Fold each of these.
Amino acid sequence: MSTTASTSTVNRWVVLGASVAILLCAGVIYSFSVFALPLVQGHESWTMSQVMNAFIINGAIAPIPMILGGYIIDRGGARWSIMIGAILFVVGFALTGTATTLTQLYLYYGLIAGLGVGFTYSGCLNNTIKLFPDRRGFAAGVITAGMGAGTVIAAPIARGLIASVGVGQTFIRMGIVYAVVVVVASLFIRPAPVGYAPAGWTPPVPVAGAAPVNKTWREMLATPQFYVIFLMLTAGAFSGLLIVSQLSPIAQTASFGITAATAAVLVSIYSVCNASGRFVWGAVSDRIGYVKATMVMYTVVALSLLVLLTVQSQIGFTIGIVGLGLCFGGVMGVFPALTMKTFGPRFQGVNYGILFTGYSIAAYFGPQIGSRLGGINPADPASSEYTGTPFVIAIAVAAVGLVLALVLAQMIKAQEKARPAEQLATV
């Protein structure tokens, strides 16, 4: 498959639209906070921490299907990877509504749905950005925004259904609807041809003897850039995952004094910012460069956390979560494009799957630090004073991310100086 846009029948905009539709469904996986309390209330022996383990498992296993799916995608099997993932996702999600034991909950929501989301996300993301070599940040932003928007759409629907038919039936009914959407949308997926170039766009041509960058995962692991980008991704995701796991309880503490109803609205605002930030930062990074975009994001994250620490009011809380939401979304939109720019498009599926393990590390430690060091009484958040310690740690992590971005920028400059003949695009 070595065709280009001028000879290929692949309509990249149709593939983009179908991928977004699929991820709008898969994005419900991040609305788990809506289901968590009803699950606890519906099962007398379950505790909140036990139920939350399902979400942790779901996120922790994500790199496994992303790497396996990436292997399939890099060999032209994007539709198969997405279809397999879509089926696993809807089956796991619907079966969650039948879970009567914690083991079943972990199996259905944590393992099966988690594997499905990983395959689906990897397929939709990595296949689509290969079709947009001229607008990588834009494509990655739109795709990941679809994932984020899924939470915005699903949360109010789930709340309404839970109130009327119960949490079990909500999982089943939403799962059936999602099954129809993802299967139909999967039919419109086409694998990106190797060397795809859209009509009217000419890829940067290096001088004679300078080959394009296309590193295998082994070659990627041999570069210092991989470890810097890996840690940058971990640092970038840390604060967003910390806040999203406990946004509502933090808002309701005596430190901020926000009511439960208003906290629910703020959760929606954060979700909207998360979704829009993926698109906005993806487009911005195409203009100013991916590394410069990450520098700005780490700075905004640190400032937003500082606001949360020092302006303990509803206004301060809102400003803080808006900044954090936009930048968490930005991390998810920029890093796929940064990975492809640094290591090439040919093996993007596997390469980004490996790098995404940094997200899983953040998904574990961010919520853990937030829940253990925040000092919140889960039974009555309003009686608690938030310690602010997790915010201080998150500021330090953001500062490390900024330093790493500066290091990566110097690496790129040194590389360009050593190989001036290579006409590298802006990074």
Amino acid sequence: MKKLTRKEEELMKILWKLEKAFVKDIIEHYENPKPHYNTVSSLVRLLQDKGIIGYKQYGNTYQYFPLISKEEYRSTFMKQVVNDYFDNSYKSAVAFFVKEKGLSSEELEELIRLIKEKK
């Protein structure tokens, strides 16, 4: 799966939160200024063509739902980031975030605990 565009991700975040929605419901959850109906409808069709969302038809209207979970997308995207920017080294990726984000000692301890649990 390829990384979604910023606009596609924005729509998917709304749909993951709602779990299922009509286009008008999705639009309601955008911040102002809200996108035009046709814009959202076009994005929905693109995501549908990519196999990211599905739909259920009710007469002339369609209710959309995600076909992949937020966790599945995050996992795929993060693997791609680690591969593309950290030479496929999770150690380098974690070291980057430790240095750049200045993690607190509590956060570092939590990371160590998670690593130990994984072993």
Amino acid sequence: MALTRDFKETVVARVRRDPAFAKALLDEAATLFLNGEPHAARLVLRELVNATVGFEKLATLTGIPSKSLHRMLAVNGNPNMDNVAAIFDAIRQRLKVDLRARSVVAA
């Protein structure tokens, strides 16, 4: 069965009409990153950047060239911690949310 709408378009549309969904994506990216899944976190962040600030605006906000941001958030990207923090901060500010980490004891 063929998809009738491109995945990226679907994410962008949902983020724009549902701020809670955008916040949930940011939360998911942070959770993935903190749980040792940086590959998945980068891909979620990439979709969130495309749906919110865009790479050109993110470049302005972070002081990191747009091409570098694209590479960092690609499948084989390898951003350093300062760049990851700058990306999270820019998106966090755009969505007007705070990020707080808390530990949860696994059962």
Amino acid sequence: MALINYKTVTPDEAVKVIKSGDHVHLSSVASAPQCLIEAMCRRGDAGELKDVHIHHLHTEGPAPYTEPRYEGVFQHDAFFVGGNVRKNVQAGYADYIPIFLSETQRLYREGYIKCNVAMIQVCPPDQHGFVSLRTSVDATLAAIETADYVIAVINKNVPRSLGDALIPMSMIDIFVEDETPLEPAHFSEPNEIETAIGKNCAALIEDGACLQMGIGAIPNAVLAQLGNHKNLGIHTEMFADGVLQLVEKGVINGANKKIDKGQMVSTFLMGSQKVYDFIDNNPMVKMMDVGYTNDPFIICQNDKVTAINSALQVDLTGQVCVDSLGTKFYSGVGGQVDFVYGASRSKGGKSIIAMPSVTNKGVSKISNVLTSGAGVVTTRNHMHWFVTEYGAVNLYGKTLQERAKLIISVAHPDHREELERQAFERYGSHFRFVTK
């Protein structure tokens, strides 16, 4: 078949299709099209745009459209509060839409949010005229399907991921070329506390389990403990470098999965160049629409789904706060509830919330009640396993007083006496006789 030809324009020409009042979607994480973002902001600097709404999940790299100087020009209405926008969201210059990750695609497909322009980044076309959305399928595919205009940055540094990531060039209206390397994500090595949490979580993971976990030190600490496990699978919203060594060892092979057998399923990725190289044309990796990866009723079709998620704060009834520190929004709902529920419905599944018992300043992350203004993401009704560096406890089927005792047992020793006093005041004299 002949080489596919396409006409490209400059980023500044491409973003001319954006009009005041438009809703613009950006592909996520390392796929954020920085050259188009910069060009869009130049139009803002020139006074050509106002009231443009920007939507995306977490993005890596700069997010200048959230800066105070663009007030009235760009309105950041994202589905997650990442580190690059957190300060401006907390200051009120940017905003956040609380939404389960599984339902972000519905916002576009069912018309709750318009998508006038989708700005994405793809690999060069293959001989059949298909390009790949590489590390960001999530809600981006839905945005492409519903957009008035799709602008795609063709980048030879982009891996060609498979699954729902492959789309025909006919879905794209405007092409731009850029060779900027992908934005890598950097993760610190787990410290002593995180390593202890990793060991406590790993002890709950059975051979043949299907894993979901996020990114960062705790997931990496968990994965580091799984070298002697057998036949693990991956069905997750995202993965990073921590899985690669286990794939190389044959520990992660998906052999026991009931659906997508032998394949690692994800909807977006963050990691080093090693991750991007790993997914390139790799049939073992299936990048899927977030409506598939995060649907609890699809998740639970695999047996022994083990979902490991974190928290900012947990109260003595098992309520989990993930997205805010008091009234200050810090992250987002993400896919936690999707996988907590999916894992709890899975045959032999386990839902785990894991976090350090204290902050870096020594403040207890376990409290009698959540901080005023904090939101509950995972309810006490959904809470099963709770893990800190001091152990793992299962709250499922436990009474409120039993839960309080169990949670206090894995709190930091410096804070247990005060938590016990607060629980006594809350539940009365009978509390002291509650046993594990």
